[in-house]
């Protein structure tokens, strides 16, 4: 196989280096696209961009023959790589898991942005949490931010509900005498998907006061980046919000509402950085049409491009 490949490349002659060069560029582009898909947040992208700049600077200093600068930059690159591995551990974990499961398509497929939570859904959640906290009823809500969570990330997937999010339903679920009060409840968009979900616990050392409910919230949010958890303590009635394995507590109802609004609305920080391949294709198509219409001065083509652009905006 290897000999055949070598023979084929030799037969190609001068076009061999061109072919390999193109293949090299295509593979690097594919890798870059995959990284953008995995990162999926502009905030994190800046960090990766900074890292790439450092690597380029290190390569440049090597080329220019500046050994001292190169030495410092190389050490900096190694330090940053370790820091990034820690900071992006959930992304790395997801990447390795998808690779291990053989889900290659998902590696190139940006998780579609979830329907932004309407104010009414946030209000229903906040009102329910307020009542639960007042009555010291323990609760654990998982709220999806971008894209659905894979059920396999839960220890036990719970009981499917698929019901509209209302404060009455959330409060009813967590009443201590109901069958579903134990475990977590999953909210996707404006629907309650399931209840009685058992989550993986966080391995991080947390405050001694924190029991399994809080550690479960930390566990799922450090494992899955596209969700947050709202926790109401049964013991104290305090409210906590877990994001990326970090527990913010205690929160007032006002602070919880502000945080939910900030985290669940599609703001700049949560904007996807890698467009879907379809939308990428459509954008390229539009740009090509604009160029052709400008060159040829065709009014119809111009109108067509305007229509495509406005469809994209919608
Ligand atoms: N792995 C888990 N996944 C989902 N829910 C869990 C998990 N472990 C515990 N819980 C929920 O937490 C409850 C037990 O809470 P525990 O007292 O251990 O935690 P806590 O963090 O101290 O919370 P609280 O302040 O409400 O007492 C269980 O009854 C169950 O409903």
Automatic annotation (TrEMBL):
It holds the Pfam family DAC. GO terms for biological process: cAMP biosynthetic process. GO terms for molecular function: adenylate cyclase activity; ATP binding; diadenylate cyclase activity. Keywords: ATP-binding, Cell membrane, Membrane, Nucleotide-binding, Nucleotidyltransferase, Transferase, Transmembrane, Transmembrane helix. Residues 89-253 form the DAC domain. It comes from the Bacteria. It catalyses: 2 ATP = 3',3'-c-di-AMP + 2 diphosphate. Probably a homodimer. Catalyzes the condensation of 2 ATP molecules into cyclic di-AMP (c-di-AMP), a second messenger used to regulate differing processes in different bacteria. Belongs to the adenylate cyclase family. DacA/CdaA subfamily. This is Diadenylate cyclase. The gene is dacA.
